[in-house]
Design a protein that fits this description.
This protein is about 30% helix and about 20% strand. The protein is of the alpha/beta class. The two termini are about 45 Å apart. It comes from Laccaria amethystina LaAM-08-1.
């Protein structure tokens, strides 16, 4: 059975525009007129408001400088959210280049993997990431002057202007020089294939992969979300409309380098004629201060932030209800209890969840526009233009309320994985994307998702490099704070297993050693926060596939046993 969106028709999607042309100049039926004086961005640290004209000027200046001095093609950016992050992105797109956002907390080996996988020719880094950026550039064979810094006032005192270029330096240089480039123009249909981003995703198996996202995919997803939420339509009283010109949003824990921040927090919000408050680094109490200071109306959160919002003592000191009109949660399902707490705290707000992934250039479901409240446990309904199948393990299609893997088709689907034909063939099939997430869809079209945020195979590959381990399997265990945490079932090699039999007291030391090994080689959100358990063997199917379900059931029984103690 195939299930189509019930959220209404999908408006036309321009297929000959780059992302900066769409965001700066395109008039669209779903795009409201921005109120005079309404800024596009506000720097949370300084309070500085930045409008369209300034952003466009800085983008043009930077594009000119990049063309004159570097002749760029692919750029890797290492930073949290900064007001110049979109400037660097749009400038690169104006030149026909490609952007790859990197987590500023990456270790050198993780960043090097990304730089090599994308064949980056330049790195633009937050000053605090400079040491790692220079180390990676040297290892990757990039000239040291191809590492450029974002301007961050609190971190710039140790870097003189003569040391290396900053974004401010390049913008000033570009604006003072004669324009040396012609902005990239696309032929009809070319936006569907012209690459804009190489955004990394763990996908459903193996190492992180560079998802090849064309300009059309992001533009399509913005229009899909706008159509679903009836942007620029007087579908109900003004005070009850979800997104209104002049509303003010703040991003969540996932900043602009992540696809959620890039598409939903930035481009969708700007398309809605709203203002985005840009927060360099997430701090919960700082976010509470920002809500009051900027009169923020829209929160885009992930489950850990929702837990803090519901349970942190500091929340009692703030009158948030007077401002908050909408809370959207993504990345992982919320428990029924957390949903109910949010509903009680903000009785007049629109509150619900969405679901998406990098391979679909973000959102495929959102809670229905017909209800202020999303259903507990649901990630919403398919947005316009999206079609879904639920596929059982035997390959047959599931019916309503039957579980299986979610497979989706959408105009926002990526082109595949760059330089990885096998993974592309396994995940992208005739316009459909195999998400790897287990779902059920009910007769009302509500999609209930269960999935890991980190591909187990990536952590298993890391574990198998540990000298004490002969086999491993990673499963997700429930957690109120994070949705799910990775737990590793580990088979020790014969020599270490013998030592453990002779001295059971070694167990805690060995587990700590394994967790530290992963922590030393993976970014924080990939650590084994669920712990390590030793087993004599890993259950597999006759074809050799790891039976994660068996180990998930085993971990559930272990938790029940511990709860009784």
């Amino acid at each position: 059975m195939e299930i189509s969106s019930i959220s209404g028709p999908l408006p036309p999607i321009p297929d000959s525009l780059t992302i900066p042309q769409f965001i700066f100049d395109c008039e669209h039926v779903t795009r409201p007129v921005r109120r005079a004086g309404t800024p596009w961005l506000i720097d949370d640290t300084t309070g500085r408001a930045i409008g369209r004209d300034e952003l466009r000027k800085r983008t043009l200046g930077l594009a000119n400088a990049l063309h004159l001095k570097y002749g760029i093609s692919h750029i890797t950016k290492i930073s949290n959210s900064l007001t110049d992050y979109p400037v660097a992105m749009w400038a690169t797109h104006m030149l026909g280049g490609v952007i790859s956002g990197a987590n500023p907390d990456f270790l050198a080996n993780e960043l090097l993997y990304q730089v090599r996988a994308t064949r980056a020719s330049m790195i633009i880094a937050h000053p605090e990431s400079l040491r790692i950026a220079l180390e990676v550039a040297e290892t990757a064979g990039l000239p040291q002057d191809c590492v450029v810094l974002f301007n961050v006032e609190s971190s710039m005192s140790t870097y003189s202007k003569s040391e290396r270029d900053t974004i401010d330096d390049l913008v000033e240089y570009g604006l003072n020089m004669k324009t040396s480039f012609s902005e990239k123009r696309l032929d009809p249909g070319e936006a569907k294939t012209r690459l804009a981003f190489l955004s990394f995703s763990s996908g459903t198996t193996g190492q992180p992969k560079a998802v090849a996202i064309p300009h059309y995919a992001l533009i399509a997803n913005v229009i899909q979300m706008a159509a679903h939420n009836k942007i620029n339509q007087n579908y109900c009283a003004w005070e009850d409309q979800r997104y209104r010109p002049g509303d003010i949003a703040i991003g969540g824990r996932y900043p602009l380098p992540y696809i959620y921040g890039l598409v939903v927090n930035l481009h969708f919000i700007l398309h809605c004629a709203m203002t985005l408050v840009v927060v360099p680094k997430f701090n919960f109490t700082g976010m509470l201060d920002s809500i009051i200071r900027h009169r923020i109306t829209h929160l885009f959160l992930v489950p850990p932030q929702v837990v803090l919002l519901c349970k942190h003592e500091a929340v009692k000191r703030y009158d948030l209800r007077q401002y908050i009109r909408l809370i959207m949660c993504g990345a992982a399902p919320l428990s029924h209890e957390l949903n109910q707490q949010l509903f009680s705290m903000f009785p007049d707000a629109h509150i619900g969840q969405g679901y998406g992934m990098t391979e679909t250039c973000t959102v495929t479901t959102m809670w229905p526009i017909t209800s202020k409240r999303g259903k507990s446990g649901s990630s919403g309904v398919l947005i316009p233009g999206t079609v879904a199948r639920v596929v059982k393990p035997d390959g047959s299609f599931a019916g309503y309320d039957e579980s299986g893997e979610l497979v989706v088709k959408s105009p926002s689907v990526a082109l595949g994985y760059a330089n990885n034909e096998q993974a592309t063939r396994e995940t992208f099939i005739d316009g459909w994307v195999k998400t790897g997430d287990e779902v059920r869809i009910d007769k009302a079209g509500e999609v209930r998702v269960k999935g890991l945020q980190v591909a187990p195979a990536e952590l298993e590959g890391c574990l198998l490099d540990h000298p004490d381990i002969s086999n491993a399997c990673v499963v997700g265990i429930p957690d109120d704070y994070c949705g799910e945490l990775p737990l590793a079932f580990v088979v020790l090699n014969k020599e270490v297993s013998g030592r453990l039999e002779r001295d059971p007291g070694l167990s805690a030391h060995l587990k700590a050693s394994i967790m530290k090994y992963v922590a030393d080689n993976k970014v924080g959100y990939k650590h084994l926060a669920g712990g390590v358990e030793f087993v004599s063997s890993i259950p597999t199917s006759p074809s050799g596939k790891l039976l994660r379900r068996v180990l998930r059931d085993q971990s559930s029984e272990m938790r029940k046993a511990k709860a009784k103690l």
